[in-house]
Please model this.
Amino acid sequence: MMHLPRIAAFGLALYALLPAAPAAAVEAKPLHRELGAATEEQRAALKALLDNPALQVAGQMLDGPSLHRLYEATGYDLLWAGRDERIAALTAAYAGATDDGLDVPSPLSDPFKAKVADPVVRDVLLSDAALRLASALATGRTRPESWEDDWAVPAPNFDAVNGLMGAFRGDKLGPWLAGLAPSDERYVRLKGALAHYRQLAAQEPWPRVPSGPTLKPGMVDDRIALVRRRLTAEGYLPVDQAAADATSDAPADPAFFDPALEAAVNDFQTRHGIVPDGTVGARTVAAMNVPARARVEQIALTLERWRSLPREFGRNYAFVNVPGESLEIFEDGTPVLSMKVVVGDPTHPTPVVTSRISAITFNPVWHIPTSIAQKEIVPKIKADPKYLAKNDMVQKGSYVFEQLAGPKNPLGQIKFETPNKFDVYLHDTSTHQTFERVARALSHGCVRTENARELAAYVLSGPKWNPEEIEKVIASTETQKVDVVRHLKVAILYFTSFVDADGTIEFRDDIYGRDKRLRAALQSGNASVAVNPPPKPGVG
Model:
């Protein structure tokens, strides 16, 4: 079986070369004594320019407040005049910004393309460019909480003005800018994937596979030859792959669906979150017909989302990728436990949020949210007066229902308390068969875990809460809330592209449209209105 090109070695080498992330802020000290580049007339012109509330230079709107802080702290000196090493460092940083995907879907304004002769105006333009590039690398080009109503992740702690002054003072502008992007290995691997898919996008466009009946192994069809060419173009099949299996009596016909092609189709499906059945149906065709340039953009949007996140999730933490429908536990930076999860369906999106596990409830009672009670429970009671009894539910008020602990409870037998503004949490489930599905966006917003017992044992730790004791408590059927030994941090995040540790990139559908809205925000330069419905509190 052929696999996608492995990029882990490239990514890890690049990771090793990255400098450590800089401090968020540097103590502001006057720089004018060191520079002394401006005449009094230039200082006056600089002050007058910065006093304009709508600061615009060469057709570009500039960050007036930040520039005012910068030049006020530096005594209104020119910061770039005669500083060829600074200009060279900024030029190199702008050229390298494409490695981080900062040119997609729309590039940062390039200050070196502006035709500006006035040294004061040029100085301000370059300072603004340095601040914007630094902020884009350190915190992202747009803040998701300004256009997503279900995003609750703190922004990285960063002060571009103080950081830039510190870089000037130490003559380390280049290293400072180079160290601002995330150094997380997963980010670095994605940068390698971005470079690889740029190369693919620069080649001949991938052939499109026409729609039609499902293609299956053993069939002969002209569309199969296109499937073969398409998979070869992305690296799932070697260029010199024979059209038919060498052990087969079938002719070497590119339109014949041979075992090698079946293996390549399986590989493609696995890496796109599609049931790996080796046949080419409508969903597989749709994924194959996504062009390379769209994959470049998808990776770039994921890198953008990474930059908007805190640089550290904690020493030990749970990492949930919603589109990937997966959970990993990291201990000192190393994954020690992984499992499948079920996440919210498109009408009940799982929010992007960070929290921590504060306690575990065994045999939990489900306090049914009012929205579910009104829309789902009440109609079912009207259709079947015995519905509550059949499902171990009790009514406490007009729209107040509880489902008692037991085998029918959708929370299963374990609930992980993770306090957050959306009241979403990790929990067990009464329908473990759903983990056999490839696509698992099925819940009302909370995250159902495949191995809740194993996760509980890890979080509780210690001899008191070994697996046997956990089973004993669950068998009692009594609801019991216990404190945890490890207050494990939890990050529930959203990445539609990611690179496995072995260097294989995977893609997932944009199930909630977050990539689409991020793209719109970057292209418009303005906050866009989120279209996600408000998160439903406390739902399974």
